Amino acid sequence: xxxxxxxxxxxxxxxxxxxxxxxxxxxxxxxxxxxxxxxxxxxxxxxxxxxxxxxxxxxxxxxxxxxxxxxxxxxxxxxxxxxxxxxxxxxxxxxxxxxxxxxxxxxxxxxxxxxxxxxxxxxxxxxxxxxxxxxxxxxxxxxxxxxxxxxxxxxxxxxxxxxxxxxxxxxxxxxxxxxxxxxxxxxxxxxxxxxxxxxxxxxxxxxxxxxxxxxxxxxxxxxxxxxxxxxxxxxxxxxxxxxxxxxxxxxxxxxxxxxxxxxxxxxxxxxxxxxxxxxxxxxxxxxxxxxxxxxxxxxxxxxxxxxxxxxxxxxxxxxxxxxxxxxxxxxxxxxxxxxxxxxxxxxxxxxxxxxxxxxxxxxxx
Length: 365
Known about the structure:
single chain; alpha/beta; Rossmann fold; Dehydroquinate synthase-like, alpha domain; six-stranded parallel β-sheet; two-stranded antiparallel sheet; 13 helices; globular
């Protein structure tokens, strides 16, 4: 019998300047907060965060994020939060910071507040984290019983980040509907353990439509560090729509292949999550035999926002066949989602598709 599950954050707030309201929203959840951010993020917004929390009479303890969402980092921060006696956890920054903070809050069984400072991934809204080893190799997904209690996105802050990261968020978001369709077609389960709901599929489709309609103009606006209606729409699509879409409709090939890339060493690991997902999405489309026209549309759009569409873009143009098979084999792990695309794929199938994307991209003018 089918079971339909839909999961979402308690509250989502987005807009230019909403950082000044952070304290008021945090006060709904507790009075003593454990804050986590890396040095760069804290240097950029720390004063504004302290001012907002102070105005709401919120006390806090700040700790630096060390850079990897690993089990060791989660345990380190959870131990520090226990010693500090805080009541809730607040994460400020990018995807790995936010995934770590969700895990810390789960360890403590406390509310969690997510404050993305860049619209680069769909991590903020979900009830899961991607866990890596200390060396940055994909380890597992960690699932939670609830989504974040608050996601607060200040678009005025997000547009200050490098435009490359904004484009990465668009690329990550564009995987949402492609993967949702694969999950639906294969009768697989979503990330919340149910069949994709009508709402989830509609949200995933709206995500793709919004990004393809407004993504390029929003990209140009963010390059100038300005907030426009197109930017607001794209930030919502990258953060809320993609987050709800991937969680409630499911993941398939694009993100599994992204995870597979962690099997090899080299300059590819200087690329962002979204940059690797972009190539993973094209590979996913080749593996499900999408039409040339559909794949070409995505390739041209990715090019317009400077996302990778060739092996040279990934710094893999000289990679051996054996290493590409390793990528495919890791992507096909039992704990990952490639089987939602096709349960019969092999590491060699994925390696061939990775090479096919490169050849097809080079053929387009």
